[in-house]
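Lab manual, section 2.4: Encoding a predicted structure.

Procedure: take the sequence of the chain (149 residues), apply the prediction step described in section 2.3, and record the output as structure tokens. A sample record is shown.
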Amino acid sequence: MSLISQLPVFRISVQSSEMAVREALQKLLDGLGPLALDVEESGTVELVMAEALNNIVEHAYPPSDPAGPIHITCMHAKDGLHLTVVDHGRGMPDGQTPLGAAANLDVDLCDMPEGGFGWFLIKDLAKDVAYQRVEPENHLTLRLAVAMS
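Recorded output:
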């Protein structure tokens, strides 16, 4: 068993925008550097967080609303990475995350359903996914089973 470096808790804050998602992902991956994640692990982190952050930009802070803050907290533990994402945007419909379903890829591109596949990916790749609206904030917590010791 290899020893994994201890990683102090770190936080990232960005202002909602498509470019902010890229910035936040780069800061997150840079912050995870000491863990020396393999390509698959870093890809999982990037995919899950890209889906979560893009959902915030698109739905919590839609173009009709002003941009707002997105805060990410990352903590490494024996059971993986624990991530918390907080924003001040619109809440989830019905106060919960969408079910998320696997997309049927055996259809023409124009017939592919819109929405829900990102949540399928998040829930499939992450563990302990939880959402809570704590006025005026959205709190999404999840655990990624990477860099486990």
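Check your result against the sample. Strands lie at 10-15, 69-77, 80-87, 127-134, 137-144.
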